[in-house]
Amino acid sequence: MKKKVSYWAGRAGITLLGVTIVLTAFASLPKHASAAMSLPDRASAAGCPSGMSCGSYSIPGLGARKQQILKAGASTLDLAVAMLETNTMQATYASGDGKTTDAANFGIFKQDWYMLRSACSRFLGLTSSQYAAGAFLNSSLSTDVACMNQSQRHYGLSTWFAGERYGQTGIGHPNTPDILRYTKAIYWLQSQLTSRSANLSNDTRFWVAVPAI
Ligand SMILES: *[C@@H]1O[C@H](CO)[C@@H](O)[C@H](O)[C@H]1NC(C)=O
Ligand SMILES: *[C@@H]1O[C@H](CO)[C@@H](O)[C@H](O)[C@H]1NC(C)=O
Ligand SMILES: *[C@@H]1O[C@H](CO)[C@@H](O)[C@H](O)[C@H]1NC(C)=O
Ligand SMILES: *[C@@H]1O[C@H](CO)[C@@H](O)[C@H](O)[C@H]1NC(C)=O
After folding, report:
1. How far is the CA of 151 from the centre of ligand 1 (A)?
2. Cα 213 from Cα 200, distance rounded (Å)
3. In contact, 190 and 76? CB cutoff 8 Å
4. CA dihedral in degrees (144, 110, 90, 212; nearest 10)?
5. pLDDT greater than 60 at residue 196
6. Distance 190 CA to ligand 3 centre (A)
7. How many angstroms is it from 152 CA to the middle of ligand 1?
8. pLDDT at residue 211, rounded to an integer
9. Cα angle at 180 between 44 and 1, to 5 degrees?
10. Helix 76-85 / helix 141-155 crossing angle, nearest 10 deg
11. What integer pLDDT is reported at residue 16 of this predicted model?
């Protein structure tokens, strides 16, 4: 089962010669990306990872939020993950992201309960069915960031990416094309955020979309 059902929520169809091609957004597409797929501000082809579409647009208040997250101790990689997961970098999605037990997601990075209870000191020792405890991250940005740090250290980055994308299944099978593409998308977002320091504090949101698998 796909862990990140939310990725598949940002879909837009293009009809080409009568065949509907479904594009799936890793990052949810900006609201103004209509079904006609006029994607805003497409980044240069050289900058965008091959096979993906990338771009940027502005969200009022996002710059302040980026700074708040960085000040809570997040790395720029963490910032990229949050930017991909939600438009506004807030945990305002449905509780657990519509999932339960080990697959439930919490906080602005949508960390899954399996990894939280396996790697984050606050939750160590809790069981799969105690997932509701993860909602604590919703109200504690510092714990959310600390869990990212501990989890990345616990798993090592490449396995961490696999789990972040595909849950417990991903941890057991880390190098699938889908996971590698997810990883590339995150690194692209990070590169956009860091290559000009203004991007770490202004309202620009970068996004990446890739074809459905
Ligand atoms: C976080 O809290 C908000 C406000 O209480 C709520 O709407 C949202 O569903 C919660 N998000 C999660 C992921 O639990
Ligand atoms: C975790 O935090 C420590 C201390 O701030 C830092 O040195 C380390 O690079 C962080 N690890 C990750 C994976 O971000
Ligand atoms: C940072 O900011 C501007 C606009 O958002 C953009 O031109 C630039 O490409 C961004 N990232 C990089 C790669 O510098
Ligand atoms: C953010 O900073 C970049 C780099 O300076 C700039 O190109 C971009 O237009 C800025 N975005 C906003 C929303 O001000």
Report:
1. 22
2. 31
3. yes
4. 150
5. yes
6. 11
7. 24
8. 56
9. 120
10. 110
11. 28
Q: How far apart are CA 72 and CA 147, in angstroms?
A: 12
Beta strands in 2-77 (DSSP E): 11-16, 19-25, 53-58
Backbone phi, then psi, for 23, in 5-degree steps? -95, 135
Ligand 1 centroid–CA 13 distance in Å is: 30
Ligand 2 binding pocket (C-beta < 6 A) is 75, 149, 152-153
Query: Is the beta carbon of 143 within 6 A of some atom in ligand 3?
Result: no
The Å distance, Cα 91 to ligand 3 centre, comes to: 26
Instruction: Look up residue 59 and give its two tokens.
Output: 């969200």
Which residue type is seen at 181?
A: R
Q: Which of 202, 203, 206, 207 to mutate to test the pocket of ligand 4 (most atoms within 8 A of CB)?
A: 202
pLDDT per residue over 145-156, tens digit each?
Answer: 999 999 999 999
**pLDDT for 4-59, tens place per residue?**
533 332 223 222 223 333 333 333 333 222 222 334 444 443 478 888 899 999 99
Q: Which of 95, 100, 140 to mutate to test the pocket of ligand 1 (most atoms within 8 A of CB)?
A: 95
Token pair for 138? 């919703």
Average pLDDT of the chain is: 82
pTM for the model:
0.80
Flag whether pLDDT at 203 surpasses 50.
yes
Using DSSP, state whether 13 is helix, strand or coil. strand
Helix (H) or strand (E) holding 30: none
Q: Report DSSP state, residue 14.
A: E
